[in-house]
Design brief:
57% of the residues lie in helices and 17% in strands. It contains three helices and six strands; from the N terminus they run H-H-H-E-E-E-E-E-E. The longest helix has 56 residues.
Length: 167
């Protein structure tokens, strides 16, 4: 009688062993060294690509800024020529200069150039006070006269407006 329980125990044990052997063992394997190196290289390349794109945009912005800054005196000269031509009533000269002025101003405007507003109170962030003089009926700190227009390229002040301020 002792033999039967032993056989029974052996039979159960062999069934359990077969079940364990038949099941696949899931182990977490680390990525292969080649795959890890590939993933790091891909991430480094992506970072490089983004950095180069950002630097390219900054370089383009600086180049445009320099070009526009160099064209501002031309715009000023054309405005002075328009004023002089209007005083002498030379219509054809005035029309030609106006045409050039409009085309240059529109070109610069398309590239992001904006004139700084000079009406109202003096703002040291966008205005440069060249003189302070008593203003008849003007509030203290208000702009009396604009000597040279100021311009912004995007949000950056290229040249502050040069003004006379009321005392």
């Amino acid at each position: 009688m002792t033999d039967q329980p032993l056989e029974h125990d052996v039979g159960e044990q062999s069934l359990e062993d077969e079940e364990l052997v038949g099941e696949p063992v899931e182990e977490e394997t680390p990525p292969a060294p080649d795959q890890d190196a590939y993933l790091r290289l891909a991430a480094d390349f992506d970072n490089y690509r983004k950095r180069v794109a950002r630097e390219h945009l900054e370089l383009t912005a600086r180049a445009n800024e320099r070009l526009v800054n160099e064209l501002l005196p031309v715009l000023d000269d054309l405005e002075r020529a328009l004023e002089a031509a209007a005083e002498h009533e030379e219509a054809k000269l005035e029309e030609g200069v106006q045409l050039v002025h409009r085309s240059l101003a529109s070109l610069l405007e398309r590239h992001g150039l904006k004139e700084i507003a000079t009406e109202g109170a003096f703002d040291p962030h966008v205005h440069e006070a060249l003189l302070a003089q008593p203003g008849e009926g003007a509030a203290e700190g208000s702009v009396l006269q604009v000597l040279q227009k100021g311009y912004k390229l995007g949000d950056k002040v290229l040249r502050p407006a040069r003004v006379i301020v009321a005392e």
